[in-house]
Amino acid sequence: MTAVITVPDGAGPDWLRAHREAVRSVVTRTGAVVVRGLPIVDDGSFAAACHAVTDTTVREREPFAPREPRPGAGIAHSSAAWPPDQPMCMHHEGSYGREVPGLMLFGCLVAPASGGAIALADGAAVLRDLPPTLVDRFAREGWRLIRNHNGFIGVGWQDAYGVTELDALADHCRAEDIELTLTPDGTVRTSRRRPAVVAHPETGEPVWFNQIAFLNEWTMEPAVREYLVAEFGPEGLPYTTTYGNGDPLDEATVALINDVYAAHTVREPLRAGDLSIVDNLRTAHSRDPYTGDREVVVAFAEPLVPVPAVPTAA
């Protein structure tokens, strides 16, 4: 079960600020905690709760799904646009970046009628249960993410990278160690290699930290993948992942990674006012399908540059 801390009746951000160290110690120990009973009813009260937990918040970078900044609060974003009847694969937010959020905060303004939990999986436990040969290869090579922006499908490069001119995109790619290619048909293609196994910044423990399975072509709906391959070719998919050296992943390997995530998934049903604090390096997250209305706002905090780690053989 997910760790849950229930605040005293009438407690608010001041209580959370006074107990910050104790709450954060639970996050370090377990990877995530739900603080329950806070008066989180809108963007402003969510932002106040976030500031009680952390001093450093940041904006999202290089999104894959539409997510809008919320007006008035300064740090809040909408949750990622995702069909309510479809599950979301486990992932560590922004793990394809050179710098990543170390902490994720989710505030539940409106709880769904059913489902819709923020599901969590321990990256250290996932690492231990993946085949050693697979872990060793990814630890040595890292993983590669390829994105194609052709103006027809997926997020446009202007929205994905937050720039409007190709010269600015080139500058961004150089700064972020991203390979940029402009194809003859006008497609903007980017490729970057990132570590797949990193050392946790506080404990030093190796953890599985990536979006290898979530952003791979084999996680797409089969009919969608077949259409995209037929329309744009296997090299023109809006995104996919490979081994660090560029070798493709097969469907069975991607399914295996998702199966191991599923075996380590825990969830706590959402209640209005819940503040979920997630150690993004240690803990992958996803979202369950749901019915009814659901309004969850998100903040990104404590950016850091992940340090690659090589797991110790058992």
TrEMBL record:
Keywords: Antibiotic biosynthesis, Iron, Oxidoreductase. GO terms for molecular function: oxidoreductase activity. The keyword Signal does not apply. Residues 13-298 form the TauD/TfdA-like domain. Its cofactor is Fe(2+). One of its GO terms (biological process) is antibiotic biosynthetic process. It comes from the Bacteria. This is SyrP protein.
